Amino acid sequence: AVVSTQSGHYGRGCEGSSVAWSPHGSYLALCGKKWEHIYILNCKIPDVTTSKMKIPSGKFQNCCSFDKSGQVLATVGVSGEVFLWKLNQGTGVWDLIKELPNFTLATVTTLCWEPTARYLCTGNTKGHVTVHVRDSLKEYNFSNKIDLFNGHNEEITALVCNPYFPYQPEEASVGFSSGLLVIWDIKTKKAA
Question: Is the pTM for the entire model greater than 0.85?
Answer without folding.
Answer: no
